[in-house]
Structure formats: structure tokens, C-alpha cells
Amino acid sequence: MSDVKALWQNQTVEEKEMITLSDIRDRAHKFQSRIRWRNVALYVYSAFNIAASFWLILSGRLVAYRYPMLLMIGAHLFVLWQVNRRIGARPLPEELAARTALDHHRSELERQRNALSNAWLWYIAPFMPALIWELAIRAITPNPNIPAFNNRIIVFYLVSGAIFFWTAVWLAFSRAALKLQLQLEQLKRVAAE
Amino acid sequence: MDTKQGRQNELYLQAAAEFGPALVRLAGVYESDHDKQRDLLQDIHFALWRSFAGFSGQCSLRTWVYRVAHNASISSRIRRRRATMLTLDEIADMPALNDVENEAGELRALERLRTLIRRLKPPDDQVMLLYLEDADAGTIGEITGLSPRAVATRIHRLKALLAKQFHDRANA
């Protein structure tokens, strides 16, 4: 058996594979700039949404929808903040060193599972008030140029489409959360040995 | 540069000199693609360097380095969601690898060993890696969080697995 160990330990590690302090500084720089760019992207996306929505509201287009549109802007910003907080977060270096591999693995899986299983609350629910409001406006104020029956059909398709889309999103999140739960159960069994 | 950062750099350089090759071997198991290996290795070193800001001799340098390295690799693997890993029972039922002496040398044998570890589920892969790095059962328990009994059982089964997969070399 020591022969397999020797084979493993004596494998050639090329000089270029080694990391220097200057590589670490480069990495730290990249790490900081990645966070900076992510924040910039977040701000640009938010600014674009807000500007476009305000332009639509102020120019008198889609007057009836101005309040739900404002609500939708708020929902977008809230969800972006939550995605950043819940999914993108990385463990702190002191956590990496203080936890055993089992604890660390479990807490990483739990963090992701919680984020996914509560997705209906932080990813789906924020869009619902604005969406329902917009659909209600569409149903209450039908387009006068289209026959009433066709208007009802359009509303029916819009509502069905929204239900189908958001159910699919919810199912995708739930499936991913369930897979993580199964991995967690396996780790719990290992920890109990 | 203040004294604190000087100490952090000093500890990092000591760890990198002592455990650098082991970290390359670890990254080689967690990632098969060379560029991703390099990326993971930089992630591990970066996490290690940052972690030394909080190191005050709570445990041995070896335990600290392996904990950070394994945990950083776990986080990276979860982010990439790699699948198709097997338990020790499932992998033991796989047909034995061909006699490594008949293969195209040590490189091939090493690649087979890496593949074998990659296919193991955590924490079996971590125990295998630490066992190959000559860590004793106590250290493996400290790093992985497994009980001494669980570590002993796993090492026993891993030895049997290695003997089966690399029988000629193991019996040499």
C-alpha cells in the first residue's frame, strides 16, 4: 500500500504549477474587481430599468400601468439584492479554516437549499403584486378595438402563461432544493457514524 | 506593510513551501481540466493567504492548510455542481483496473488514481486524499469532522479498494 502512497506523493509537480505571493496579489486584485464589476452591472441594470420605466410613465405611454410598473421596478431591485445576498455569497476565510470539511460541506449545502426552497418568497412573490395588478388592469379595461370575446381570450392566455411560467420556475427551484436535501441527508448519516 | 500583514505573508509562504505540491495534487483531483485546476489552485492559495490573518496556532499548520484547501474545493465543487459520484460500496463493485505495470507507466496509473478519487463521494474522497498524503487518523478526523471510528473504518475500506484496484503495485 505504501507503494501507492509513494506513487501519489512522488508525482512531479512542475515549477510553473506553484503559486507565488505575486499570483495571490493578482488574484486579490481580480477578486476585488469582480465584485466591483458585479456591483456596476447591478447598478447599470437597475438604472436602465428605472430610466426606461420612468420614460414610459412620464411620456404618457401606458398611463394605466404606471403604478404596477413602479412596483415591478421595486421587485426587480429587491430580487437582484436577494440573488446577490443568498446565492452569490462566498464563505469567509475564517469560516474555511474553523470548520471541519463535513460541517463546511453541510453549511454550504444548507445555505443553497434554504435559498432555493424559500425562492417562492424572495424570487417569485415580489413580482406577484405588480403582475396581478397589470393583469387586472388588462381584464378591467379591455381594448375597445377588439371584440369582447377576443379580449377575454387574450386575458385568459396571459393569466395561463403567467401561471405556467411561475409554476415552472417554482418547480425548478424545488427540484434543485430537493437534490440538495438528499445530499444533506447523506452527509448527516456520515456524521452520525 | 504592517506587522500583521507581514506575519500573514510569512505564514502563507511557509505553508506554500511546505504544502504547495500537496495542494497541486489536491486540485488535480478536484478538477480534471488543466485550466480549471489552475483556477482552483489559485482559489485555494488565495483563501489560504486570507485565512492566515486569523491564524494564531489554534491547530497545527498542516490541519489548518488542509481544512482551508478541502473546504475551498468543496465550495468550488458545489458552485459547479459536478455530479455522478459514487459511495465506497458502489465503487468497490466496479471491475478492477488493469495491472498498472502493464499500463503506459506511472502517469497513467496516477491518472487512474485521480479518476478513482474523483468518483468517490465526500467525505470518502477527502479521507482518501488525506490518507495518500500520509495524514494519520487523528489529523484526518480533525480535518473532515469524522469520528475516529468512522475514519478507521474508511481507511480500512480504502486500503481494500486500493489493493483491489492496484493489486500488483500494492502487493509489491
- Quaternary form: heterodimer
| N to C succession of SSEs of chain B | HHHHHHHHH
Approximately how much helix is present in the residues of chain B? over 70%
The global form of chain B is: globular
Main sheet properties of chain B:
none
Whole-number mean pLDDT of chain B? 81
Derived structural class of chain A = mainly alpha
- Relative strand content of chain A: under 5%
Count of all domains of chain A: 1
Please tell me the overall pLDDT of chain A. Answer: 80
**Structural class of the secondary elements of chain B?**
mainly alpha
For the terminal residues of chain B, how far apart are their CA atoms? 53 Å
CATH topology category name of the largest domain in chain B: Arc Repressor Mutant, subunit A
What's the Cα radius of gyration of chain B? 17 Å
Backbone shape of chain A: elongated
What's the total helix number of chain B? 9
| Cα end-to-end separation of chain A | 26 Å
Major sheet attributes of chain A: none
Beta-strand segment tally of chain B: 0
Number of strands of chain A: 0
Describe this structure in words.
The complex is a heterodimer of chains A (193) and B (172). Chain A has 193 residues and is mainly alpha-helical. Chain A has one domain (25-192). Chain A is built from 8 helices and no strands. Chain A has helices at 2-9, 21-58, 66-86, 93-98, 101-117, 119-124, 128-140, 148-192. In chain A, α5 (101-117) packs antiparallel against α8. Chain A is elongated and about 85 Å long. Chain B has 172 residues and is mainly α. Chain B has 2 domains: 3-80, Rna Polymerase Sigma Factor, Chain: A, CATH 1.10.1740; 88-171, Arc Repressor Mutant, subunit A (Orthogonal Bundle). Chain B is 73% helix and 0% strand. In chain B, α3 (61-80) crosses α7, α6 packs across α8 and α7 (137-144) packs across α8. Chains A and B meet through α1, α2, α4, α5 and α8 of A and α1, α2, α3, α5 and α6 of B.
